């Protein structure tokens, strides 16, 4: 157990954690020079400042905020964090609400919540002062997680794993850089912690959900660092599969994503011949296409035709989904398909051996396949773009917060499989095949829920805008939409995505995914 604890402690910060005793066991076992006991004053906020309100937002990293102000900011930070990740559209951590009544002040979960909330508050308000206090809470949370890992009973409890997931979120919110080596150590420690939880975690609804969230987080990390999927994660996945419906589309989608991660790693390592690479990528794309074509009836979306140009809508139509979760699911599928087809396209353009390609294709079939791949990317990109107006424009229509409405002629095209609710959940959109709809376009303040739903649009728009297939007109529309999301909806992360698109800087899309705080990539 002690060896496992030492390995798991390596986890969380990528280095051993000192237990701050006179004879530090952790430092001694890790061969580190122990800095000795921590001054208790390091872990409390100091009341030593003047002009406190101004210093909350100052750029100076040396400013100190009194305890009373910190307490107020912390409460605001928690409210902001909960609105986004617990009670809002993302709801990635909605289970935290069930822990709050039972969470002791001073526990690792309490410290992790405080640290992550302050980090999110700092990111949203561009406050380096608050960020410094967030980091102090992060250090405290690391120490408390380390203490929890000393006991097998505490290490295997749900709050401990939740704390680890929150600390991972903290690092993404603060854009804490990890080298691939550091990340690998972190990953191995986290896997050891999950292994320590055993099969019992899969028999609990929450335990299984935490594993799936951990699984998703690790896959994204592998894509971000161009790493292979750890064999231990595959083993854990195999054990978990005994407790999951084999036809669950979410689970099957995650299996395809896992194989996509492996394909990217093997391609980067140069392990695959052209034919093997192309066959694998096409197979995964075909499987995802089948997933899209065989979704349950309630997953179907409607297409609203817009015959007259409307600035806020790209092209001649947009899509309306039953809810934002289904929009998120559809766009996740499209993103992976776009990246798969881009991998094929890039292989044609650069890395492929011409002699090997000529043995796979004739000149004509090669050109046809290249054109097909480009058309597929464009089609998927157009579908992602068509998912945007429901969340950027229809809320105006629903809430009526506009001074001057405009009218457009629309006809609604329904999927071949009837749906129970059709479009009845949207005002003034009926089940008739042709009608006049009033879509109000203009400046509007978005509610917290509407804003939260718009967050999930940023990464898909970046993926589309960064594609070589993306036309100038589509990219211009995407940049305009990202500016709208930043300035009108209030999503600062949209500016990060826009800056990379404007600069045409090549970046691993999954690194940007981590930067902008999209931490729920799952179907």
Characteristics of this structure?
523 residues, mainly alpha, globular
Walkthrough of the structure:
- The protein is mostly helical and 523 residues long.
- Helices cover 61% and strands 4% of the residues.
- The protein is built from 25 helices and 4 strands.
- The radius of gyration is 25 Å and the shape is globular.
- About 17% of the residues have low confidence.
From the N-terminal CA to the C-terminal CA, the straight-line distance is 36 Å
Largest beta-sheet characterization: 4 strands, antiparallel
* Cα gyration radius (Å): 25 Å
Mean pLDDT: 77
Assign the structural class, choosing from mainly alpha, mainly beta, alpha/beta, alpha+beta, or little secondary structure.
Answer: mainly alpha
Query: Secondary-structure element order, as H and E?
Result: HHHHHHHHHHHHHHHEEHHHHHEEHHHHH
Low-confidence stretches: 11-21, 29-33, 37-62, 397-443
Described by the principal axes of the CA atoms, the overall outline is globular
Percentage of residues in DSSP E strands? under 5%
Report the total helices.
Answer: 25
What's the count of strands? Answer: 4
Strand order of the largest sheet: 2-1-3-4
Roughly what percent helix?
A: 55-70%
């Amino acid at each position: 157990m002690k060896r496992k604890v030492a390995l798991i402690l390596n986890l969380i910060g990528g280095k051993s954690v000192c237990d701050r005793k006179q004879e530090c066991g952790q430092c001694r076992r890790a061969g580190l020079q122990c800095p000795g006991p921590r001054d208790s004053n390091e872990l409390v906020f100091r009341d030593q400042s003047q002009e406190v309100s101004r210093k909350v937002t100052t750029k100076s990293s040396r400013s100190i905020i009194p305890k009373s102000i910190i307490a107020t900011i912390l409460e605001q930070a928690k409210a902001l964090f909960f609105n986004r990740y617990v009670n809002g559209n993302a709801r990635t951590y909605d289970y935290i609400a069930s822990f709050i009544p039972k969470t002791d002040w001073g526990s690792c979960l309490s410290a992790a919540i405080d640290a992550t909330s302050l980090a999110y508050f700092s990111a949203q308000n561009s406050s380096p002062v608050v960020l410094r206090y967030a980091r102090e809470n992060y250090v405290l949370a690391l120490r408390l997680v380390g203490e929890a890992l000393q006991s097998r009973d505490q290490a295997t409890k749900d709050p401990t794993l939740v704390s680890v997931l929150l600390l991972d979120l903290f690092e993404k919110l603060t854009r804490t850089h990890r080298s691939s080596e550091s990340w690998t150590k972190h990953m191995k420690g986290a896997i050891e912690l999950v292994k320590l939880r055993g099969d019992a975690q899969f028999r609990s609804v929450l335990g299984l959900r935490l594993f799936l969230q951990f699984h998703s987080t690790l896959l994204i990390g592998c894509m971000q660092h161009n790493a292979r999927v750890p064999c231990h994660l595959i083993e854990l996945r195999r054990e978990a599969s005994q407790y999951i419906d084999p036809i669950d589309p979410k689970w099957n989608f995650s299996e395809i994503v896992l194989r996509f991660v492996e394909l990217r790693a093997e391609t980067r390592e140069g392990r695959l011949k052209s034919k093997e690479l192309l066959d694998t990528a096409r197979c995964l794309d075909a499987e995802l296409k089948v997933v899209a074509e065989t979704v349950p009836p309630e997953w179907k979306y409607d297409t609203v035709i817009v015959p007259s140009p409307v600035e806020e809508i790209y092209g001649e139509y947009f899509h309306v989904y039953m809810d934002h979760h289904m929009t998120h699911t559809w766009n996740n599928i499209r993103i992976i398909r776009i990246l798969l087809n881009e991998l094929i396209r890039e292989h044609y353009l650069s890395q492929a051996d011409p002699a090997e390609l000529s043995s796979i294709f004739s000149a004509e079939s090669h050109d046809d396949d290249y054109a097909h791949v480009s058309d597929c990317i464009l089609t998927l990109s157009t579908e992602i773009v068509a998912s945007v107006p429901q969340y950027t424009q229809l809320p105006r229509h629903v809430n009526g917060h506009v001074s001057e409405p405009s009218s457009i002629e629309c006809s609604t095209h329904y999927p071949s499989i009837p749906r129970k609710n059709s479009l009845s959940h949207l005002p003034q959109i009926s089940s008739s095949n042709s009608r006049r709809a009033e879509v109000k376009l203009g400046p509007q303040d978005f509610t917290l829920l509407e804003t939260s739903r718009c967050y999930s649009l940023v990464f898909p728009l970046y993926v589309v805008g960064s594609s070589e297939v993306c036309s100038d007109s589509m990219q211009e529309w995407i940049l305009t939409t990202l500016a709208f999301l930043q300035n009108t909806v209030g999503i600062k992360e949209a500016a990060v995505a826009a800056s990379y698109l404007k600069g045409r800087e090549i970046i691993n899309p999954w690194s940007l995914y981590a930067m902008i705080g999209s931490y729920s990539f799952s179907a």
